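Why do we bother with a discrete structure alphabet at all? Because it lets us treat a fold like text: something you can write down, compare, and reason about line by line. To make this less abstract, here is a complete entry for CoA transferase. Read it the way you would read a sentence in a foreign language you are learning: slowly, and without expecting to understand everything at once.
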Amino acid sequence: MPLSGIAARIHGDGPAATHARRLLREFGAATADPDGSAPELSVAVDSFPAVRDWAQSGAMALTGRAGGPPLVAPGTSAAATRAALAVFAALRHGDGAVDSALPGAEVLGERAALFGRGRNAPWSVGGAFRALPAADGHLGISLPRPDDLTLLPALIEGEPGRYPWRAVAEWARTRPAADAAARAQLLGIAAAAVADLPGRPRDEQFRQRGERAIIMRRGGFRRHRRPTPLVVDLTSLWAGPLCAHLLGMTGARIVKVESTRRPDGSRAGSRDFYDLMHAGHACVGLDLTTTDGVGTLAQLIDSADLVLEASRPRALRGLGIDAEATVDSGTSWLSITAYGRAGPWSDRVGFGDDVAAAAGAVIIDEGEALPCGDALADPVAGVHAAAAAVAVLASDRAFLVDVSMRDVLAAALRDPVEAHEVVRGPDGHWRVRTARAEFPVAAPCPRRAASAAADLGADTTAVLSRWVGG
């Protein structure tokens, strides 16, 4: 593991500190060093209750019905996010210093803030996801793409008519959730059975991965160990770009690679959000339907210290790009996918809300399963991936890092949240009260990019002339 031989000392207690210890052990660090012989990594984690983290992250303000009270999600996802950011900061500095430049758990709510969205249950914040009653639980399904609607007749074996969501709900009601999700996945529709126990899915994928959210395989000795690492970012949407954004904040050189035929879909959304994720990154555009385009990508990958990727494994294999061989030859590779690149569900598609539901991040209210936060699995996975990335960049060996968005969030849902009640204060603002304290529910708070992100392909010539031979 990348942190083998390192002793990590956690300063703090509470749910965030507990999660930080688990994460560091997953990366290979020892959390106790009796004889003091190992190099020490100091990690500072404030000792806040999990309810406070959730209330102040902005995600609580996004959880619940429109016009109703904000709700507390199961588990400790905001505390886990803060823990991963603390580990990230410690690996960046090595001295346990709190990095005021880095964001906090507020990353959970900032996309909704930049899009101007709020509570929207039983729909997701973005409106493309809903958890529907099934014969034995709930089916979580996302329909964010125009093509998804064209697939509905094949899914429900009939015409959906004027009200497609109503038709899907009627179809799901008589079918076991797992069977309905499997049929949707065969068509390329993002769907999952909602886990009935938060953080404890019972499916074959979860069992085969052994409840490991982040799986690391060691490869060859690193070919490049630059003071300023070169990170080739092949990801899109949120989890991967958030990981790249955080690495860029550490000084890494980020090169975002997009297909000229199919650019990052986030470009069509909030410009402020896209700029936040990608400002300061070089942008290369390649036609990956051509031999030249794929060959250039392969050469750029060979030049990298680390590759970030968020495609289902078969997609890049179809281009002749082999992550395992890349790692064996000395370049680290970090993959962020819905359910992980290993296991029977490695080719399943997923978006943040349906993946979160598969982890059990829902609240049952009046028989309905309400989503928690905004695409919660995306930012939680993104910050954990960033922590894993800085860990492997500290090693002299290359690693293949397999990040399962569902399982990262599931690990953050297993610890129970303290007893609480949500109340409205005399000022009309919502607060969450525990036996020992009361915390205001913060509105989602966006950060702003210092500059605009590069246009598609703006840096292709400059990047290729520097990093690609010939």
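What the structure line is telling us, in plain words: The chain has 18 helices and 17 strands. Residues 46 and 212 are 26 Å apart (CA to CA).
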